[in-house]
């Protein structure tokens, strides 16, 4: 276990872009100064056993940083994926570190775990190990939540939150997302490859962002809080949510199942996100993608209240 010092090359400036920051700097900006203690750090050289076979570069933390720290004095476990190493993709060691952290939280009755997602999914070079890791992570999240641990996902990195990351995020107690925080099980290129460009044009960036981006996920209810792209905004939203989250229960699962079934009934025939926004009663759907964050947050809160009241 090593303590990560705050005198890094990257400054502790909470106005810095979450999207542009590294995994380690996101942790520094999110947690209280000098509070983070890393588990299985780079000095331990726990690298993927598979990448050398494909003559691919390794990283000594295997693209994920895990440890414990504090946020406003509250003890938390934290994991941050590094989207700049292999797109934050899950491999054997990468997945095992996150699974181990979640199991420790379960066994130690830790109150909260923060997962800073930034991933394109599973590494193709270690597909079997990566897929197994996703299954173990999802199971570990559910077990930890059942034991009373709050699992909060923060999504706003370069790689988004795709594949097994999207599935794992869906198991969390709640999600905080910025506009940059794309969430989906399949990425744009995967959809186009398997279903054709007529189904989804991955080069149409406007289509990608309005389908998978943070604004649409918040409007759908797939994310609980939308924030601006700053470390300060993510930190403030984290503190607010941690005080409201409830343990996982059968009633929680039933409520979520009902919400998803209703969403399918309401929007199952829609062909584009704009069709969904129109059905939600948003008067000027064309303005949503370019809407400033503060205006969008007000709109999203109003839409979610309207949807809740209608049911």
What structural class is derived from the secondary structure elements? alpha/beta
Q: CA-to-CA gap between the ends?
A: 49 Å
Tell me the number of helical segments per DSSP (H or I, 4 or more residues long): 11
What is the C-alpha radius of gyration, as a whole number of Å?
19 Å
- Percent strand equals 5-15%
Overall geometry: globular
**Order of secondary-structure elements:** EHEEEHEHEEHEEHHHEHHHH
* Proportion in helices: 40-55%
| CATH superfamily grouping of the largest domain | 2-enoyl-CoA Hydratase, Chain A, domain 1
Please list the strands of the largest sheet in the order they lie side by side.
1-2-3-4-5-6-8-10
Instruction: List low-confidence stretches.
Output: 1-9
Tell me, rounded to a whole number, the average pLDDT.
90
Level-1 CATH class name of the largest domain? Alpha Beta
- Count up the domains: 2
Write down how many β-strands occur, each being a DSSP E stretch of 2 or more residues.
10
Largest sheet, described in full?
8 strands, mixed
Task: From the 3D structure, determine the CATH topology of the largest domain.
Answer: 2-enoyl-CoA Hydratase, Chain A, domain 1
The CATH architecture designation of the largest domain is: Alpha-Beta Complex
């Amino acid at each position: 276990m090593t303590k990560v010092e705050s005198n890094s090359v990257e400054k502790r400036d909470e106005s810095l872009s979450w999207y542009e920051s590294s995994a380690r700097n996101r942790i520094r900006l999110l947690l209280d100064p000098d509070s983070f203690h890393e588990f299985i750090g780079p000095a331990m050289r726990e690298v993927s056993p598979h990448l050398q076979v494909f003559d691919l570069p390794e990283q000594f933390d295997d693209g994920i940083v895990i440890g414990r720290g504090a946020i406003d004095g509250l003890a938390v476990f934290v994991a941050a994926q590094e989207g700049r190493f292999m797109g934050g993709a899950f491999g054997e060691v990468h997945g095992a570190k996150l699974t181990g952290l979640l199991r420790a939280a379960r066994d130690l009755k830790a109150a909260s775990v923060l997962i800073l997602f930034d991933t394109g999914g599973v590494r193709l070079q270690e597909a079997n190990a990566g897929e197994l890791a996703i299954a173990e992570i999802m199971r570990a999240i559910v077990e930890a939540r059942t034991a009373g641990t709050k699992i909060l996902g923060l999504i706003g990195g370069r790689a988004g939150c795709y594949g097994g990351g999207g599935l794992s995020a869906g198991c969390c107690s709640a999600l905080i997302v910025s506009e940059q925080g794309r969430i989906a099980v399949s990425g744009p290129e995967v959809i186009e490859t398997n279903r054709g460009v007529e189904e989804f044009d991955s080069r149409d960036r406007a289509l990608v962002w309005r389908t998978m981006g943070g604004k649409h996920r918040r409007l759908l209810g797939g994310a609980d809080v939308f924030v601006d792209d700053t470390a300060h905004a993510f930190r403030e939203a984290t503190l607010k949510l941690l005080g409201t989250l409830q343990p996982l229960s059968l009633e929680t699962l039933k409520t979520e199942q009902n919400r998803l079934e209703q969403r399918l009934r309401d929007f199952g025939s829609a062909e584009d996100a704009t069709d969904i926004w129109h059905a939600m009663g948003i008067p000027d759907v064309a303005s949503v993608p370019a809407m400033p964050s503060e205006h969008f947050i007000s709109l999203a809160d109003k839409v979610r209240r309207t949807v809740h009241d209608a049911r």
